[in-house]
Queue: 3 jobs
Job 1
Amino acid sequence: MRILLHWLVNALCVYIVAQILPGFVVAGFGSALVVALVFGILSVVLGPLLQILGTVVTLPLVIGTFGLFFFVIRFLVYLFLLSLTAHLVGGFYIATTGALVIGAVLLSVLHHIAAMFFQPAR
């Protein structure tokens, strides 16, 4: 049940960003559901591998910035996975690199806001 709620919230976030941002196009809420599903699967399967690879390749920068460059690596992986999702899912299109970057930031902010509301009580 929790995974289903998380999936629906992520789809809603994608749909909201598509309504706000020109150049970030989702055909409808059904397409947003598919985008959320594909992006979630890619994030689980490829995300950790790409983050490790990026950290190993840029290890001197990560060490030199006391780990702060790791945030850049995570953001670049997020951008790559979002772009890959746009290539894989019909009905989802990102027109420009600017729309990709701004859309990724907006999605991240919306996900964090939604996480505050849907966290289980402790």
Job 2
Amino acid sequence: MQADEIRSLFEYHMALNRRLWDECIVPLTDEQFLQPLDYSVGSIRNQMVHMPNVDSNWFELFAGDFDSKPNFLNPVYFSTREKVR
């Protein structure tokens, strides 16, 4: 994969991430954001914390760091949308 392709994918990813936040996450109530769900990693909050965890791991792989262990953020430390974002 060429550097321009990686940049293009990154820009696309970030644009969709902003759109997801602006159109889907921001309009939620605090209760909806924290509500436990029986899907994936749990609440929408947990999913939104999970996303940058995965991004960080991908960036480490792009940088050639194949030996590092994932360092995941814990959603319990992000009680509001502002803290997650």
Job 3
Amino acid sequence: MPIPTEPIGGIPRPRALIDGINAFKGGRISQKELDPLNDAALRPFGDDTSASRETAFEKIRARVAGVAPAARALKIR
């Protein structure tokens, strides 16, 4: 028996992507210029499956904010 599922939420958008989307909507950049920003925003979320939950969320918060993750989040547990 299949279990029905559906996606919830979304991938947080880093500041660079938000700025790029706004620039695209404002006609300041093209789709060709926006595409690499989308690609870069998606790529990091599949790159680390070995992290603890806390580390993963710290990395996501840092990527959204456009800063380096806090050193405490990168400690191996």
